[in-house]
Specification:
456 residues; mainly alpha; 0% strand; globular; MFS_dom; transport
Length: 456
């Protein structure tokens, strides 16, 4: 992966950023690909699993989404532990435990097993995504952050592009070999997480000061640049807060909670799409008389993510170049909301597919730009906690969205009502991002100043 040089950048800066990018980003993308395969392969398993063990659409929606309830409960504690033990150790632990639980999905027998294992998978994976976002904030200056987050987030569309045909291919191969295809898929796709968890322990580096793969000059430039950014953050101007103060103020900060609510709205679109697009395509048979085979389903599902991969990289680079976040994130989300709503209103199969393409482009472009904002005002353990809180609250949409979509399908026999609600949530999230105050001075810093006895 390459980085586009910014204007007025020194040679040492270009060399350092390029080396850090090549060292970290491809590996982190690979971890995210595996995470999303294990999290979302349930969407393809459902095409056979639901009938095999008697899962209704409501129960499926509950089980798919309840992953995020476990995620929500343990994300902030997980990020505090990540800050304490370091990303290398903690991300390795996360990967090994989620790999074991993901593999156990291949042995479930009842709807209760399904729901229980989805909760455990959420608990195991809690802290991975915000942990990586926090890790990137320790390695990349703020002017590069949106594009690096976008590069890391390529793991999502890549997982869908390769995961869709891979998952259905494993299911068909298992059926052909006399196995239950969806069980084989769960087990095979869980193995890389365990292996990469072990690799992670030896490969990742927690801090630039420990990066012996950088030259002394590169390491010094990076440490000094990041240290200067930390000193300039509103949280630290004039104060030296304790870790306990940063944790408390991050949890009580109004801006953090506003960001969490915005993220809740935006991710409603991605979560509903990840879990229900394969079954929406399968429903074309009853709605339009259009038969879509298992492999065709997987290939069509991959298209929106392939287009989104290109769009979100371009959009995040544009945001970095202009150093503007709110309109880039909010505008993309509102485009996504309008697109899927109009497509569902027109109610034609290929127009609905185009709606999903625009939904993926808008939502994933918005998410990548969005994550450049928290790191601009949060620091240290406060950043770990704040990012964890935003992600955990936001990802509750992954619980509410799929359950609501499944329930409304059970009641109405159509996916349209559920996705219209999802479109409204995405649109509100985008509007909230646009309207969010741009004040540079963090409320956390302002609140900490009296407690620390200093002046902001």
């Amino acid at each position: 992966m390459t980085t586009t040089p910014l204007p007025d950048v020194s040679d040492i800066e270009q060399q350092t950023i390029k080396r850090v990018t090549r060292r970290m980003i491809p590996f982190l993308v690979l971890l995210f690909v595996v995470a999303f395969l294990d999290r979302n392969n349930v969407g393809f398993a459902a095409l056979r699993m639901n009938e095999d063990i008697g899962i209704s659409q409501t129960i499926y929606g509950l089980g798919a989404g309840i992953f995020f309830l476990g995620y929500f409960m343990f994300e902030v504690p997980s990020n505090i532990l990540l800050h304490r033990y370091g990303a290398r150790v903690w991300i390795a632990r996360i990967m090994v435990t989620w790999g074991i639980i993901a593999g156990a999905m291949g042995f479930l027998q009842t709807p209760i097993h399904f729901i229980s294992l989805r909760v455990l998978l959420g608990i195991a994976e809690a802290g991975f995504f915000p942990g990586v976002i926090y890790l990137l904030s320790l390695w990349f200056p703020s002017r590069y952050r949106a594009r690096m987050i976008a590069s890391f987030y390529l793991g999502v569309p890549i997982a869908q592009i390769i995961g869709a045909p891979l998952s259905v291919g494993l299911m068909e191969m298992g059926d052909a070999w006399g196995f239950v295809g969806w069980r084989l898929m769960y087990i095979v796709e869980a193995v890389p997480a365990v292996i990469l968890g072990v690799v992670c322990y030896f490969y990742l580096t927690d801090h630039p000061a420990d990066a012996h793969w950088l030259t002394d000059k590169q390491r010094t430039w990076l440490i000094n640049t990041l240290a200067q950014e930390e000193r300039n953050k509103p949280l630290l101007v004039g104060v030296q807060p304790t870790k306990g103060q940063m944790i408390r103020k991050a949890l009580c900060n109004r801006q953090v909670w506003l960001l969490a609510l915005v993220y809740f709205g935006i991710t409603s679109g991605s979560n509903a799409m990840n879990f229900f697009m394969p079954t929406v395509l399968a429903s074309f048979r009853g709605t339009f008389g259009l038969e879509i085979g298992l492999m065709q389903n997987g290939l069509i599902t991959a298209i929106p993510y392939a287009v989104a991969a290109v769009a979100m990289i371009w959009w995040s680079r544009r945001s970095d170049r202009l150093q503007e976040r709110h309109w880039h994130a909010g505008g993309a989300a509102m485009l996504a909301a309008v697109s899927i709503a109009v497509a569902l209103w027109l109610n034609q199969p290929w127009i609905i597919v185009i709606g999903f393409i625009l939904l993926a482009m808008g939502v994933y472009s918005a998410i990548n730009v969005f994550w450049a904002v928290p790191g601009q005002v949060l620091t240290g353990v406060g950043a770990a906690v704040g990012i964890g809180l935003i992600n955990s609250i936001g990802n509750l949409s992954g619980f509410i969205g799929p359950y609501l979509t499944g329930y409304l399908f059970t009641v109405t026999g159509s996916y349209t009502p559920g996705f219209l609600v999802i479109a409204a949530l995405v649109g509100l999230g985008g509007l909230g991002m646009v309207l969010m105050p741009r004040n540079k001075e963090s409320q956390i810093g302002a609140a900490l100043a009296p407690a620390a006895g200093g002046k902001a």
